[in-house]
Amino acid sequence: MTAMTPAVDNLVHILDHPLVHHALAELRHKDTNAQRFRQRARELAKFLILEATRDLQTEPITVETPLGLAEGRTLRDRPIVIAPILRAGLAMVEPAMELLPEAEVRHIGLYRNEATLNPVTYYVRLPNSYPSSTLVLVIDPMLATGGSAVTTIDLFKERGVERIKFLCLIASPQGVRQLRHSHPDVPLFTVTIDDHLDERGYIVPGLGDAGDRTFGMYES
User: Fold this and answer.
1) In angstroms, what CA-CA distances link 102 with 31, 71, 133?
2) Biggest distance spanned by C-alpha atoms of the chain
3) Which of 25, 64, 170, 179 falls 20 to 30 Å from 38 in CA-CA distance?
4) With contact defined as beta carbons under 8 Å apart, do 142 and 169 qualify?
5) pLDDT in tens, 103-140
6) 8 Å CB contact between 200 and 114
7) pLDDT one-digit tens code per residue, 5-57
8) SS3 label, residue 39
9) Residue 218 has what pLDDT?
10) Cα gap 120→72, rounded to integer Å
11) Residues in a beta bridge with 70
12) Where in the chain are the domains?
């Protein structure tokens, strides 16, 4: 992290693992093709989801194996909602569904106005309310200006959700500050916090446009 990185509090979690660093380096590389980019994004998303769900509550259960009875534990935290921000968030959905097959998936469609850098909502289909016990994992590869993250979290809080976590692969200092200012109760899980945003609102050094690179539309 650099001198521009905001102070990290106990609700900002930055992953630190050799396999994470290795995957991130390849994800960033300009010559990494779309197929490999998607694979690395899925791997990193799985690390993030494992870390973000570390505190889920469980309860004891007895299961019958082919050879006898075994004591185990099962998730008590329900319901769980996975909320990818379209379109780049789709790169992180598959590992989330693999790890949490019981979860509900709710897509949130947002794009950034290139002139104002403000988020524009184009697709939202959510229930009018959620049980207070609901846990929402908002996922998006990039936390740049923070506008899309804040807007998405607003949508769920308006429906009564109190437990929300935001997961991203790369964050900017500006995005972290915006998220902490707007939603100081929402934990952030990220692989890294980069140096700054450029005049177009792109994270530097970043990895380019995550959506374009995911779907093979990136031009170096």
Assistant:
1) 36, 21, 15
2) 64
3) 179
4) yes
5) 999 999 988 777 777 888 888 889 999 998 899 999 99
6) yes
7) 444 578 999 999 999 999 999 999 999 998 999 999 999 999 999 999 999 99
8) helix
9) 57
10) 45
11) 63
12) 12-214
